[in-house]
């Protein structure tokens, strides 16, 4: 005779089953398990895998949450600090966490250790000031991070380290003064980041040259409007390039881009940055920025040139074709003359020639996503030999002109300072000094020439020397001034007549007259 365990236990009185016992057991089970994790907290509303605890004046997260929840909304509460295990229940299935409009002022390392599989995290409209590194390192699967409308003024270089799947980052309406370049360059760059909204911050300058190496797929999602930029031609060129590429970050917010003159840092006069005829930037500056971003390529005759098709839709299902300046279709795996197109969209010119210069168009087509994009690239091919000869000729001309100027200056200096003085100049100066020292103080003084030798007398006949000197009269009415002609009688008496001797040439020199005096016949 065999008895089952249920009959044996009943006969022994160990366990008696009746309706009253079952009711007590059910009540006990509910009372014990009610406080265990897995139940909906009284302050929240639960719907299958969604738990909403919004606007309940909570300062901490309730402890009895669903382990299987996928979305937790804690917005509009009074949570202040995020510390390790601030979410007390390990929630491996939780992928969306919303904690906006709270009072969060700091985030400690390890705060998200209990929510490792988050894909969407909203920390907007809080009081965060600094993002230290690393604070999000546990969130390996995070794709969207919202941090807008905080008070963030400092972002450490590794604050977003480890978020290799992050696609969208919102940092608008903060106090950031430097562009977070570490998101795009360096060993910790986020290659999947396609949207960065850093609008309405305090950024004044941009690292344009460093951004030139960032793919267009990432550049097209950088939103910079609303920042107090300084008026700069390099920044203007970058934004114009983005505008011509039809980046929505510039096209949709064109009127939100403004700049300040560096002489007016307080911003009394803000200028529209992307309006025509405002910046007055030179064409060379704009072209240099286009070259940096791959819009213009320069090459010499015979060079091998590779031009990349920097498309925003360059994923695995995208096909590329090129159109040459003479409207020839260049397709992958089909070599045409010295052109070759690779599957990734790059165009190779094996032997560049002058006739290869012009505007090329790269067309990217994605049939699955029903997207296409056209990128225009200008290629300039020049002859190095011709350019070198022209440069040599220009150098020779400039050198010749400079040498002529130097020689002219040397000759002028030699003429001014090294001209020899003849002996006659010295004799005349000496004679003038002697005449001034021996002159009689009269108005007109004429002296008869001394007896000269017979051979010199003939040449000097008829020549008179008259000296005109001032007369000083110490009268009170004169005040010691010089009186040139005191009266007419002195002038009359001062004219001396001498015997006129005819010369062989029969010429006569007259005193006080330049006209010749003809003797009577």
From TrEMBL:
A GO BP annotation: cell adhesion
Compartment(s): Cell membrane; Nucleus
Principal location listed in the UniProt entry: membrane
UniProt region (Disordered), positions on chain: 436-455, 496-521
Subunit architecture: Binds itself as well as AMIGO1 and AMIGO3.
Domain Ig-like: 302-382
GO cellular component: nucleus; plasma membrane
InterPro entries, per database record: Cys-rich_flank_reg_C, Ig-like_dom, Ig-like_dom_sf, Ig-like_fold, Ig_sub, Ig_sub2, Immunoglobulin_dom, Leu-rich_rpt
Membrane-traversing stretches: 398-418
High-level lineage: Eukaryota, Metazoa, Chordata, Craniata, Vertebrata
Signal peptide: 1-34
Protein known as: Amphoterin-induced protein 2
Keyword terms, alphabetized: Cell adhesion, Cell membrane, Disulfide bond, Glycoprotein, Immunoglobulin domain, Leucine-rich repeat, Membrane, Nucleus, Repeat, Signal, Transmembrane, Transmembrane helix
Record's bilayer topology term: Single-pass type I membrane protein
């Amino acid at each position: 005779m065999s008895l089952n365990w249920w009959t044996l236990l009943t006969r022994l009185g160990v366990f008696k089953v009746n309706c009253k016992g079952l009711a007590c057991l059910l009540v006990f089970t509910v009372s014990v398990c009610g406080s265990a994790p897995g139940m909906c907290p009284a302050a929240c509303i639960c719907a299958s895998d969604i738990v909403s605890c919004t606007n309940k004046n909570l300062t901490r997260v309730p402890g009895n949450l669903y382990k299987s929840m996928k979305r937790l909304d804690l917005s509009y509460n009074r949570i202040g600090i995020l510390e390790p295990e601030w979410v007390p229940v390990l929630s491996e299935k939780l992928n969306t966490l919303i904690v906006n409009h709270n009072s969060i002022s700091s985030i400690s390392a390890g705060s998200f250790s209990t929510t490792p599989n988050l894909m969407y995290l909203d920390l907007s409209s809080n009081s965060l000031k600094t993002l230290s590194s690393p604070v999000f390192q546990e969130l390996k699967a995070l794709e969207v991070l919202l941090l807008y409308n905080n008070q963030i003024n400092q972002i450490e270089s590794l604050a977003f380290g480890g978020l290799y799947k992050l696609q969208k980052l919102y940092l608008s309406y903060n106090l950031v003064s430097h562009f977070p370049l570490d998101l795009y360059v360096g060993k910790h760059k986020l290659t999947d980041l396609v949207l960065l909204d850093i609008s309405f911050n305090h950024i004044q300058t941009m690292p344009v040259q460093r951004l030139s190496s960032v793919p267009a797929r990432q550049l097209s999602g950088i939103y910079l409007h609303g920042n107090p930029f300084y008026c700069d031609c390099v920044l203007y060129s970058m934004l114009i390039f983005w505008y011509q590429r039809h980046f929505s970050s510039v096209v949709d917010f064109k009127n939100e881009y403004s700049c300040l003159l560096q002489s007016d840092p307080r911003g009394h006069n803000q200028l529209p940055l992307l309006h025509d005829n405002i910046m007055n930037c030179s064409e060379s500056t704009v072209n240099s920025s286009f070259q940096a971003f791959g819009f213009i390529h320069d090459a010499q005759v015979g060079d091998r040139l590779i031009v990349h098709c920097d498309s925003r839709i360059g994923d695995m299902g995208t096909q590329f074709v090129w159109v040459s300046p003479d409207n020839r279709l260049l397709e992958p795996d089909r070599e045409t003359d010295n052109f070759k197109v690779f599957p990734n969209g790059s165009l190779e010119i094996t032997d560049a020639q002058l006739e290869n210069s012009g505007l090329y168009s790269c067309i990217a087509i994605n049939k699955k996503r029903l997207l296409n994009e056209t990128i225009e690239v200008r290629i300039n091919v020049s002859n190095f030999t011709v350019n070198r000869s022209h440069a040599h000729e220009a150098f020779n001309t400039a050198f010749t002109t400079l040498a002529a100027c130097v020689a002219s200056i040397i000759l002028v200096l030699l003429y001014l300072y090294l001209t020899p003085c003849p002996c006659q100049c010295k004799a005349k100066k000496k004679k003038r000094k002697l005449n001034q020292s021996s002159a009689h103080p009269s108005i007109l003084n004429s002296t008869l020439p001394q007896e000269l030798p017979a051979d010199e007398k003939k040449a000097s006949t008829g020549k008179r020397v008259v000296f005109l000197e001032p007369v000083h009269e110490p009268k009170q009415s004169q005040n010691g001034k010089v009186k040139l002609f005191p009266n007419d009688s002195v002038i009359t008496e001062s004219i001396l007549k001498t015997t006129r001797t005819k010369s062989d040439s029969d010429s006569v020199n007259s005193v006080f007259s330049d006209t010749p005096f003809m003797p009577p016949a």
